[in-house]
Design a protein that fits this description.
This protein has about 400 residues and is mostly helical. It contains 18 helices and two strands. Among the domains are: about 45 residues, no CATH class; about 160 residues. About 60% of the residues lie in helices and about 5% in strands. Strands 1-2 form a two-stranded antiparallel ribbon. Helix 2 packs antiparallel against helix 3 and helix 8 runs parallel beside helix 11.
């Protein structure tokens, strides 16, 4: 009679009796325990060597399957991906895109758009100073301006006209990315020329080309090396003409207002005394975007004539500016954008003119900070006040 104590636990689930299991757990020396329907199994001791399978040295085939083959698959996938990326890059390089534009085609506007995006990339800085590419593109724009397009109202005429105008729009945008003064004459010509006026709100007219050309001029003017060349009378006359245009018709889809807004931004970047005087007048414009771009341009140069409009911009109540937005989310986004731009312009104003009396503006920013503005606006307001305090300590 063994002195080993045996504990028998019977697990009875709701199953037929013939499947009832008797689990035997031995307490004492290590024994082999069996589970059976009959409690007559004999306990047989086993050694530790019987508990684990024998250790075998990995074979070459095993290592090949585990490491080498997966590594080869990964290398093949990476090589194919790099190959496709290289081919795609070749097809979108600025040189290749300019060649495609010169050859023409049904999708020239898409190619011009791709070129503008490529020239914006930091890695393509050398292309932005490539005189040959810039010259070819400027010549292409000037030649394109001389090509008439359909002015009828048939679907085919409208489609061809839209494609032609879009091509000119993105050609101007691409030229604006170059850092060379040789593109100025072509942009000036595009900014002044308007052969076709849109006949309905969804129609395309040359006003879009003019707006794109003026925006490109503003981008060029932001390059300090080209500031003097930008301020030639050829450019100034085109921008001033756009700044003065108005329309009582609704067929242009607000195109004249957008044109004046773009002109205000360009004048603010150019910054000549005559430009600032024109911006001071434009701060009284009935269109909010025109007023705000004008005030921002004045503030950039430390002109306190921007003060009244800046106070309007940082006011939480932007009812007039956002009234055209149909969705509440759109109104909130535009309201935040206007206030943030107003705060940034306030920083520029106090930085450019630290001796000006800006207590009224500082108080308005403090009210915004202590009000119910969201966290993003409050953070921008704090930065603006820090700029005010910094300028005070420097005096």
């Amino acid at each position: 009679m063994s002195d080993i104590r045996r504990v028998v636990v019977v697990s009875q689930f709701s199953i037929p009796s013939q499947f009832k299991l008797f689990h035997c757990y031995s307490i004492g020396p290590m024994t082999k325990v069996s589970s059976t329907t009959e409690d007559n199994a004999t306990d047989q001791p086993f050694s530790p060597d019987q508990a684990l399978p024998p250790v075998e040295v990995p074979t070459a085939g095993f290592i090949l399957q585990l490491f080498v083959i997966p590594a080869i698959i990964v290398v093949i996938i990476a090589t194919v991906w790099l190959l496709f990326s290289w081919v795609a890059h070749l097809g979108s390089s600025p040189e290749k895109l300019v060649q495609d534009l010169v050859r023409g085609g049904d999708h020239r506007w898409q190619t011009a758009w791709n070129l503008a995006k490529e020239l914006q990339k930091p890695g393509n800085a050398s292309f932005r100073q490539n005189q040959e590419l810039a010259s070819r593109l400027a010549t292409l724009l000037q030649d394109t301006l001389e090509v008439p397009y359909p002015t009828g109202n048939s679907p085919q005429d409208q489609s061809e006209r839209k494609s032609a105008i879009q091509s000119r729009v993105f050609l101007c945008r691409a030229l604006g990315e170059f850092e060379l003064s040789l593109v100025i004459p072509a942009l000036a010509a595009a900014a002044k020329r308007e052969d076709y006026v849109a006949q309905s709100a969804d129609d395309f007219g040359d006003i879009y080309v003019r707006q794109s050309a003026i925006e490109a001029i503003a981008v060029l003017a932001q390059n300090f090396k080209l500031t003097e060349q930008i301020q030639v009378e050829e450019i100034r006359s085109a921008v001033y003409a756009a700044a003065s245009e108005r329309s009582d018709s609704s067929t242009d889809g607000g195109g004249r207002d957008k044109l004046r807004s773009a002109a205000a931004y360009a004048l603010g970047v150019m910054g000549d005394k005559r430009d600032l005087d024109r911006l001071a007048i434009m701060c009284q414009d009935s269109v909010t975007n025109v007023r705000y771009n004008s005030a921002t341009g004045l503030a950039r140069h430390g002109d306190i004539r921007s003060l009244e409009t800046l106070l309007e911009m940082i006011d939480l109540d932007q009812t007039q500016a956002v009234r055209r937005e149909r969705e509440e989310s759109g109104r909130e986004w535009k309201r935040n954008s206007i206030i943030i731009n107003g705060l940034r312009a306030s920083e520029q104003l106090v930085h450019a003119n630290p001796t000006a009396d800006l207590d009224q503006l500082e108080s308005a920013i403090e009210r915004l900070l202590n009000g119910n503005a969201n966290g993003r606006l409050q953070a921008q307001a704090r930065r603006a006040l820090e700029q005010f305090n910094h300028q005070k300590t420097q005096q």
